[in-house]
């Protein structure tokens, strides 16, 4: 009998999904790797603070940038949900 080998990343992803920890793992990865998770212009004017369920809370570098980012919330949500297809960010709160 031959065993088919799998990459360790696929095995880890499967285990995390089995124990319902995959979403939390991805959320933590996004918080710690914001510059890789989001597009550059946005990463320069805000940083993620935490997830509150399906809502990502980000902190802008100023109140004026927070107001400007409101226009890009849908795009930011789409980027995250497209890049991490098992994640379902429903909203972004900008503080």
How many domain modules? Answer: 1
Poorly predicted runs are: none
Cα-atom radius of gyration = 16 Å
CATH architecture: 2-Layer Sandwich
| Biggest sheet descriptor | 3 strands, mixed
Please work out how many helical segments DSSP would assign. 6
CATH class: Alpha Beta
- Beta-strand percent range: 15-25%
- Beta strands, count: 3
**How far is it from the N-terminal to the C-terminal residue, by CA?**
57 Å
Spatial order of the strands forming the largest sheet: 1-2-3
Order of helices and strands: HHHHEEHHE
Question: Which structural class do the helices and strands define?
Answer: alpha+beta
Please name the CATH topology: GMP Synthetase, Chain A, domain 3
Provide the residue-averaged pLDDT.
89
Please bin the fraction of helical residues: 40-55%
Q: Quick one: overall form?
A: elongated
Overview of the molecule:
- The mean pLDDT is 89.
- 14% of the residues are buried.
- The N and C termini lie far apart (57 Å).
- It contains six helices and three strands.
- It has a single domain (8-94), classed as GMP Synthetase, Chain A, domain 3 (2-Layer Sandwich).
- By secondary structure, the chain is α+β, with helices and mostly antiparallel strands.
- It has a three-stranded mixed sheet with strand order 1-2-3.
């Amino acid at each position: 009998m031959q065993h088919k080998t799998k990459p360790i990343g696929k095995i880890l992803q499967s285990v995390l999904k089995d124990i319902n920890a995959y979403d939390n793992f991805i959320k933590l990865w996004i918080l710690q790797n914001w510059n890789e998770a989001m597009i550059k212009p946005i990463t320069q004017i805000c940083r993620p603070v935490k997830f509150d369920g399906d809502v990502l809370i980000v902190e802008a570098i100023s109140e004026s940038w927070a107001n400007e980012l409101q226009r890009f919330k849908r795009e930011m949500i789409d980027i995250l949900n497209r890049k991490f297809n098992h994640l379902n960010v429903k909203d972004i709160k900008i503080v």
